[in-house]
Inverse folding.
């Protein structure tokens, strides 16, 4: 046993093992700095568990600790459990023994116990026990010029199954570990490349070596850390498993071959040139390997015994690699290392060192210079090295490198020993700064940062690892620094480079890109169709039915049928012109197909490719109430069946690949059309396939058109489905002891739960699922509070949302809870989201083993009384109605007018139950009237609406102020939607601006094209986006939908495709518009001209001639407020403003334009004759529009009084009572324009509510 304090290391002879009676234990001196306890096992061992105990007969114990390991005692690595947690739970007293089983065993000789927390009332003390067994291995040392060659007994070796295992360690990021190849083109190669393992395998003799068609798989990261890593390669035919440490990749090889044919030999450590041992084609391996097995053969053991089939070259059989000791800079604000300036013989100074980091910015080195008032800084800036000489108010700079924050080691050399400063990075050409006189360093060299008493710099301190420091060619001993014999330091960890690859494995879902810094990672979800901290939440609705319920009209939409599940979005056409909402999925064969000359021997076969994958199609069909597919078949002298024996001469193939010979919607096995059996045929050439389990048709085969004059013409329509079975799938709970049980759920790294409820009870558990210690629970904890609690091993975490109105009011309320490795969130109705950050280094995996209880708990207490519907878990909807049929105290469905699937309230209106009917609450809709379908805009007028900040924003301002820079940019968002008709250009459609002179303006340019101006950063020119170049000043109805989420902007014009844009803005400016919006003007001239650009002013000066309706900004409908709340202090009206029928006319035009277009294709309007004729003759193209002249002025209102805001700050701060700080989003716009009735499978972003 060995301990480390500030004064160095020494032996301890009086320690006792745990459980022994009597005095004993380790307790360092109070003055020791960063103490640790080291255990030498005398030989390499396989360690499986550790246990700790406090010092006996004392109050000294360790409550949390880190565990480090090393096989040399020089270079250390922190042990982490399988889920990434690096901190072990210790003791709460000095007597109990606390064991910790390792999730994966480690092979090591040395262990270090590093206390993190201990008895706050006394001091730390420790007794330890280590569990494991002996470990033996065969080791080979490769010096970069040697290799092992294993020669086969025959000329070549052909295998269909291979198993290769080995362990290696290296300090080099490049090098070949194994290679074999055959004359026919097969090869296998495993090599280190940029600190990762790259595996190449080719089994196809038609492929060229290392061609683009070969399989190349990359696994692992930071493998040049001088620690052992295990590799397992398993192959059977084309199936391959490649495992590095605990990370496995499963893949399949390309081509036709199944066997690997290797000629003569396999090489380990490099790829030698034929006939020239020791000469390599690629950089060879420099490091150690142990326990190297090829198909059960111990290669190193054969080499040690000098067997003739092994050529060992200069390989030695002990691992004597020198260790390169590093130190870790832990803090981006307070870490530093100061070293004294050493005198140089030639004048000036030189510094060399190596570093590695993930951070794009940080101070590496700084020092004061002589003559005075000069300073030299070397820092990482925007992922490049930047050398700056501060010289009497001037700055001279030199830069080097690109993406130096890639996690690899980089060598830096800085030299001032001549009349120039030279900066060299790795093997690149040097960069220089010329100087007039010799520069000398004075004081100290500061690495990584500056002490509080030193000169201050605004640059972040360096977070990362540094090693091999040399000043004036003299190496610096880091052990002397640690022992206090040299220099000074703060927030450093010695003997280890504690770097982690937080993107391995990639925890960003659905193809999101992972970006990391030293302390965290983030996900780029752009282009994935998902949002959130880990790209878990779909931005699309789950069905056309859901789009209709939020006020959308017919058009092409992307739907995500399984929500946050693995399936991606699919493009469909939603036909909403009928009472039923039809989902239309098109395929590649739209025109009629003529068939001649086919027979059973050479049939005509046509494959149909749909706009969705097979899994997406199956999910859509399963979730629909009914599906059908139209088939039109005309023939002459062509038969579907052989009338003699009933053999089919033509058939179709379903999505599962089964042949089907029935037609016309009848049941399988009946080879006739349904109308033939029912004797009601009107057109024998026109029928529907409607058996859901077999839809859609994937192939059609025609086999009887080879006779003279014989032909067939067929047309296969799109797949059409209606109804969403999940939306109104409900259960009613009448007894507290009753609950619905569902199987155990897998939700280790991420899950989301969403549902609707209505009740009159004061409290009750909606759902619960338990594990051994972990759990999930969502409950109504009081009449106005919904609580989401869970535990993943870091202790219970609780999120609560409190409503200012009771939730037990017999109305539907929406709940969505999500947990991922980054954060947890809870949404209730339109109330602000509540967020809770996950611990930075805590447990990640949620381990559940019990059943899911819906409407109650395992203890059958605190059950829920009321209705629950649309219960969805990770995109899977539970069939509550079917399960309720088997449980007493629970019934299927839910009584009440607002529980039906019919859309009683439109355009996001909320259905309110009454004792003898219902009413529609249109407060969150852009429309009004009894069913939220009325309101528009007419006459010459101007209108300004002042946004009074929502209660939720004011309520949570204190938390925003304290965490504005920590909030993700993705939480800043706006949603804008409006409909207009005009023939004028240029024209200003609307503006939104803030007291800080930020603004958004939507205009039509001179040529009528749409432009969106975003001015979020007042010191920069505005960002201008042009989503459509064609003219919108065409007298037609146009619906504009704009959604911004952080740096991403999404725009949809009418029912066209969504276009996305991205721009660069800093975090705070991206947030401001959402938080501090003050006024809205629509439409017309602008005031406050200082901050508007010339193009916007020009558009505003022309006024607006046309019709404007359905204006929505976030959760506010300014136009409706102006019409329905005249006299309000929030609304300023100039000139006449009254309701008109132009909004209704807009709906009429949309409906008529879409009517009759039953099977539209994206290209049909261009290519289809029927479509062209319809558009030419439809009366909707000649409808008379009512125009009005509208001018508007911008009124900048005074925002909330500072005194009120301050009081709310204090109130909110008083509410924070969790050890992990909760975050509450400002008035969240994800559900700003939606009521509980229309919130379907999840609470979507407003972008999704309107146009996706």
């Amino acid at each position: 046993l060995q301990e480390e304090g500030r004064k160095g290391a020494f032996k301890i002879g009086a320690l006792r093992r745990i459980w022994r009676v009597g005095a004993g234990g380790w307790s360092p001196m109070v003055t020791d700095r960063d103490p640790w306890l080291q255990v030498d096992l005398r030989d390499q061992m396989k360690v499986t568990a550790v246990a700790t105990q406090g010092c006996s007969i004392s109050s000294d114990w360790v409550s949390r600790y880190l565990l480090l390991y090393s096989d040399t005692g020089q270079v250390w690595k922190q042990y982490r459990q399988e889920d990434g947690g690096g901190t072990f739970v210790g003791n709460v007293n000095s007597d109990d023994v606390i064991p910790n089983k390792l999730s994966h065993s480690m092979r090591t000789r040395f262990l270090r116990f590093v206390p993190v927390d201990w008895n706050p009332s006394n001091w730390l003390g420790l007794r330890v026990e280590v569990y494991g067994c002996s470990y033996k291995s065969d080791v080979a040392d490769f010096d970069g010029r040697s290799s092992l060659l294993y020669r086969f007994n025959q000329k070549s070796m052909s295998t269909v199954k291979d198993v290769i295992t080995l362990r290696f360690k290296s300090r080099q990021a490049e090098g070949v570990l194994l290679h074999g190849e055959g004359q026919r083109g097969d090869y296998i190669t495993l090599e280190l490349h940029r600190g990762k393992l790259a595996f190449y395998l080719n089994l196809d003799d038609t492929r060229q070596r290392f061609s683009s068609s070969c399989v190349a798989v990359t696994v692992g990261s930071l493998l040049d850390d001088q620690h052992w890593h295990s590799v397992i390669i398993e192959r059977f035919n084309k199936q391959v498993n490649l495992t590095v440490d605990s990370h496995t990749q499963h893949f399949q090889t390309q081509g036709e071959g199944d066997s690997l044919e290797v000629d003569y030999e396999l090489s380990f450590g490099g790829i030698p040139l034929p006939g020239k041992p020791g000469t390599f084609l690629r950089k060879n391996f420099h490091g150690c390997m142990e326990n190297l097995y090829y198909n059960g053969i111990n290669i190193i053991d054969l080499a040690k015994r000098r067997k003739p089939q092994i050529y060992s070259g200069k390989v030695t059989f002990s691992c004597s690699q020198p260790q390169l000791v590093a130190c870790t800079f832990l803090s981006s604000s307070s870490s530093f290392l100061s070293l004294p300036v050493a005198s140089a013989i030639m004048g000036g100074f030189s510094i060399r060192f190596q570093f590695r980091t993930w951070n794009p910015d940080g101070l590496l080195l700084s020092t004061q210079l002589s003559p005075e008032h000069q300073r030299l800084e070397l820092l990482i800036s925007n992922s490049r090295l930047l050398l700056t000489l501060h010289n009497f108010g001037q700055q001279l700079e030199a830069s080097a490198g690109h993406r130096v924050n890639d996690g690899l080691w980089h060598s830096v050399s800085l030299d001032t020993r001549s009349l120039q400063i030279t900066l060299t990075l790795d093997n690149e050409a040097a960069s220089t700064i010329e100087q007039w006189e010799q520069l000398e360093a004075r004081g100290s060299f500061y690495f990584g940062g500056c002490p509080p008493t030193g000169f201050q710099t605004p640059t972040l301190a360096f977070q990362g690892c540094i090693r091999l420091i040399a000043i004036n060619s003299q190496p610096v001993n880091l052990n002397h620094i640690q022992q206090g014999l040299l220099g000074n330091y703060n927030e450093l960890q010695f003997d280890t480079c504690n770097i982690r690859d937080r993107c391995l494995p990639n925890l960003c879902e659905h193809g999101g890109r992972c970006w990391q810094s030293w302390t965290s990672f983030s996900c780029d979800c752009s282009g994935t169709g998902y949002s959130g901290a880990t790209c878990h939440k779909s931005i699309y609705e789950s069905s056309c039915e859901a789009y209709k319920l939020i006020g959308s009209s017919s058009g092409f939409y992307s739907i995500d049928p399984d929500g946050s599940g693995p399936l991606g979005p699919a493009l469909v056409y939603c036909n909403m012109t009928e009472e039923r909402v039809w989902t239309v999925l098109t395929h590649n064969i739209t025109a009629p197909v003529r068939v001649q000359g086919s027979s059973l021997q050479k049939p005509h076969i046509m494959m149909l490719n749909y706009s969705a994958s097979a899994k997406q199609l199956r999910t859509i069909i399963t979730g629909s109430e009914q599906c059908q597919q139209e088939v039109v078949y005309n023939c002459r002298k062509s038969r579907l069946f052989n009338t003699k024996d009933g053999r089919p001469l033509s058939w179709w193939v379903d999505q599962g690949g089964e042949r089907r010979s029935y037609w016309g919607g009848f049941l399988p096995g009946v080879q006739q059309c349904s109308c033939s059996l029912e004797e009601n045929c009107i057109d024998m050439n026109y029928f529907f396939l409607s058996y859901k389990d077999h839809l859609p048709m994937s192939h059609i085969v025609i086999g009887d058109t080879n006779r003279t004059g014989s032909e067939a013409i067929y047309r296969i329509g799109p797949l059409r489905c209606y109804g969403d079975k999940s939306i109104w799938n409900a259960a009613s709970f009448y007894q507290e002891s009753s609950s619905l049980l569902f199987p155990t759920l897998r939700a280790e790294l991420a899950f989301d739960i969403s549902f609707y409820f209505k009740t009159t009870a004061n409290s009750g558990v909606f759902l619960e699922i338990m594990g051994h210690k972990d759990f999930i629970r969502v409950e109504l904890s009081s009449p106005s509070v919904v609580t989401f609690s869970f535990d993943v091993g870091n202790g219970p975490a609780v999120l609560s949302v409190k409503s200012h109105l009771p939730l037990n009011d017999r109305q539907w309320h929406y709940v969505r809870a999500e947990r991922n490795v980054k954060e947890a969130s809870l949404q209730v109705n339109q109330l602000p989201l509540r967020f809770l950050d996950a611990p930075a280094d805590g447990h990640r995996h949620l381990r559940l083993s019990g059943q899911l209880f819906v409407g109650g708990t395992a203890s059958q207490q605190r059950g829920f009384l009321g209705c629950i519907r649309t219960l969805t878990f990770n995109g899977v909807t539970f069939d509550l109605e079917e399960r309720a049929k088997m449980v007493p105290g629970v019934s299927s469905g839910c009584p009440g007018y607002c529980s039906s699937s019919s859309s009683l309230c439109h355009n996001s209106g909320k259905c309110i139950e009454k004792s003898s009917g219902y009413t529609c609450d249109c407060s969150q809709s852009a429309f009004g009237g009894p069913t939220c379908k009325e309101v528009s805009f007419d006459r010459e007028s101007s209108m300004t609406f002042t946004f009074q900040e929502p209660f939720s924003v004011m309520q949570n301002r204190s938390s925003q102020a304290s965490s504005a820079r920590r909030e993700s940019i993705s939480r800043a968002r706006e949603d804008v939607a409006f409909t207009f008709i005009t023939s004028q250009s240029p024209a200003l459609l609307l503006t939104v601006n803030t007291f800080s002179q930020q603004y958004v303006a939507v205009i039509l340019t001179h040529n009528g094209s749409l432009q969106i101006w975003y001015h979020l950063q007042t010191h920069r020119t505005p960002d201008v986006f042009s989503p459509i170049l064609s003219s919108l000043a065409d007298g037609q109805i146009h619906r504009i939908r704009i959604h911004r989420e952080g740096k991403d902007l999404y725009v949809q014009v009418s029912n066209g495709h969504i276009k996305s844009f991205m721009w660069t803005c800093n975090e705070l400016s991206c947030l401001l518009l959402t938080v501090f919006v003050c006024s809205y003007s629509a439409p017309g001239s602008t005031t406050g001209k200082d901050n508007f650009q010339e193009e916007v002013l020009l558009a505003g000066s022309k006024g607006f001639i046309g019709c404007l309706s359905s204006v929505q900004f976030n959760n506010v409908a300014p136009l409706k407020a102006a019409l329905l709340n005249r006299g309000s202090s929030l609304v300023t009206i100039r000139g006449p403003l009254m309701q008109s029928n132009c909004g209704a006319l807009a709906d009429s035009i949309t409906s008529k334009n879409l009517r009759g277009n039953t099977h539209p294709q994206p290209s049909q309007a261009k290519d289809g004759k029927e479509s062209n004729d319809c558009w030419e003759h439809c009366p909707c193209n000649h409808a008379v529009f009512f125009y009005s002249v509208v001018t508007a002025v911008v009124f900048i209102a005074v925002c909330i009084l500072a005194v009120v805001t301050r009081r709310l700050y204090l109130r909110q701060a008083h509410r924070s009572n969790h050890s992990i700080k909760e975050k509450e989003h400002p008035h969240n716009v994800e559900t700003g324009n939606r009521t509980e009735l229309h919130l379907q499978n999840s609470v979507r972003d407003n972008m999704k509510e309107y146009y996706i």
